[in-house]
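Amino Acid Chain and Its Fold in Token Form
===========================================
What this section holds: a protein sequence and its matching fold, both as plain text.
Structure line: whole-number tokens from a learned vocabulary of local backbone shapes, matched to residues.
Purpose: to set a sequence beside its fold so the mapping can be learned.
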Amino acid sequence: MSGRVLVGVKRVIDYAVKIRVKPDNTGVVTDGVKHSMNPFCEIAVEEAVKLKEKKLVKEVVAVSCGPQQSQETIRTALAMGADRGIHVEVSGKDYESLGPLQISKIMAALAKKEDAQLIILGKQAIDDDCNQTGQMTAALLDWPQGTFASEVTLEGDKIKVVREIDGGLETIKINTPAVLTADLRLNTPRYATLPNIMVGSRKLCSQRQNKMQTLFFFRQAGMKVETVEDLVGKLKEIGKV
């Protein structure tokens, strides 16, 4: 494989910060709080850059969705060795409701637009711990996926992925294009040194506006039924079948 890799980089509250809940209990305090790149995203960036250094891929593109401050996260990825950055600007109420499905749709659309051969994401973010974006992105693109990767080896048009699973390790081979999600033991991310930060600040970071359509789902109170027939009857009553 020799092509373009998209890497998702999420801006999160720094892992060393002590979280404080807002007085109205609607969320956590973010104003004036140190943010940094999600640690699993750092691992994803490192793996993409290593593939480029081995001349197995041609270009690494860092993608971040969020407010203006997300460009700082992209600059960190550029300082680590990414070639280019794309900032999809999402702010205000849209950002507050931004979830894995919306991110997946953005990543899938960018993969098509950028003609990417590989997407590497962190397996999860430390703020919401959703662990959904990689799987959803693969589903939207109908691409093979190698999640919880602790080892990645490119073999022509195939990728060998060693996965962390409950029972130990699983080794799979998947075709490209593909989606990978990085687990903790995949690598140790490099530090962004001052000279690289200076170089990274001069690299290209394009900005795109995202028009989001937010769908709201409401959960109703549950009820108990005695039989399957009763269940079907209740579903018919509320228009679900």
About this structure: The helical segments are 39-53, 70-80, 92-96, 100-113, 133-141, 194-201, 228-237. The first helix runs from residue 39 to 53. The two ends are 46 Å apart (CA to CA).
